[in-house]
Every structure is written in C-alpha cells, then in structure tokens.
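Model the whole thing, not chain by chain.
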Amino acid sequence: MKNKVLWSLGTTALVALAGVLLIGNKAVLASGAQNGAPAAVEVNIDNFSFGTMTLTVAAGTTVTWVNKDDVPHTVVSTDKPRLFASPPLDTDEKFSYTFSKPGTYAYFCSIHPKMTAKVVVQ
Amino acid sequence: MTGRAAALVGQGFLGTAAPLAADLTLIIELAMGVALIAGAVLARRQHYRAHACCQSVVVLLNLAMIATFMAPAFRSQVAPRIPARLGRSYYALATAHAALGIVAELLGLFIVLAAGIDFTLGDRLPPRFRFTRYKAWMRTELALWWTVLVVGIATYARWYVMPILGH
C-alpha cells in the first residue's frame, strides 16, 4: 500500500515537473487540423513579449496575434523576403497568417526588435 | 518601416526597447542640438563663416534624418491613428513633436536660404528683400529647435523606455 502511494506521488511529481518545464520554455503544441476543419491558434502580445515563444502547429493552421499592450506592435517574419508582415497593431487589434508548409518560422516586432518568437509548423 | 530605415530594425544599443534606427536618431539629434549651441557661440565670437557652415549642416542633416527615419515611422505608426487617438500620450507626443519639428525645420531652411542669399548678393538685393533682424530669427529658431528636441526625447521615452519600466 505504502509503495503504491509512493509510486503515485512520484508519477504525479514527474508529470508536474514536465508541465512546469514545458510552460517554462513557453513551448506550446497547438492542436492541428482535426476532422478536416482548419485549425486556429491565438497568440496574445502582452508585456512586451509574444505570449508563446515557440508555438508548434500543424500545417494549415491559422495563427492570430492579438495586441494586448497599450503601445503598437508588429508581427514580422525574420526570413527575407518577408513571408508575413503586419501593419502596426494598436491595442486589441489582430493579425492572422496561415502556415501552409512545414518548417520553422522566426518572427519579431519591428518596432521593438527585442521581441522575438517562432512558429514550428509540422 | 520602409527603405533605409527598414535596414535598421535590429536591436538598438541604448538598452531600451528601441530599434537601432531610433537609437541612432536620438543620438544624432542630440548631437545636432549641441552643435547648434556651439554654432551660436561661434557667432558670438564673430566667426560668422564657421557659424553659417555649422548651422547650415545641422539644418540640412536634420532634413535627411526626417526623410529617412522620422517621417516613415510617423507615417506608418502614428498618422493612421490621428486624430482619433490623440488622447493617448503615445500618439499625442509624437504628433506634437512632428508638428513643431516641421515648423522648426522650415524656419531653419528659411534662415539658411535667406541669410545665404543676403550674404551672397548683399547690396544687390532690394532693401525689402534683405534679411534683417538676424538675431531675433536665429534665437527664436534655436529655442524652437530645443523645444522640439525635448519633446522628441519625451516621445522616445514614452515609446521605448516607459513601457519597459512599467512592466
């Protein structure tokens, strides 16, 4: 009985640790297109950072960024030529882009270049 | 952001949230403000040719800075939001800086042209076209220029420093 409790506690601790590590890295695996319906993921821009530093999505997913800061931000792909580039987004404004091909897409805010993140498309 | 300014979207060097273009603009504008004061000192010491060169270079360099960095940033980030959002300091400061800056730059260009023509043609100009009251015009311009500079520093602080301090 005692061993069973210890095993349960250990398993719970491992799961919790894995969760903390995952959130700590801000890596999020978004659900891909299921049942044929196009997937959509929302990323909040807040506190001068992109809410999800590394967002993993399935090909065909539409990612929408929402600016929650009180200053404008942009969402601009690092690749040249630019794959996507939003206009300056004021508070609560949105920008969407559909990632159709697998790959890693880094992006940043051109007004505040310290703000960087990436989308991994599987 | 377009053109040359777009090539300078890398991180700035002042440790704020600003891009390289904004940090460069701030430093160059501060240097030009100091240069204008140095130019005024040259005039007081009666080094008029050096004074003319110094002030002319600053006014023309500022025109290039406006065209290359400030106007594109204003056009993309501020212009589409005014007048609707002038109640927010982010837009109000930038708009005040732009409005006063245009007046200061145009006045500077007028003084450079008028003084230059007057210096070149001198007595051949009809009296009513001659540039008089140098000191009043130039002192007004220097005061206006520094007012614009201070509002510009406030704009930089609101755009790139305050948000970081606030979070």
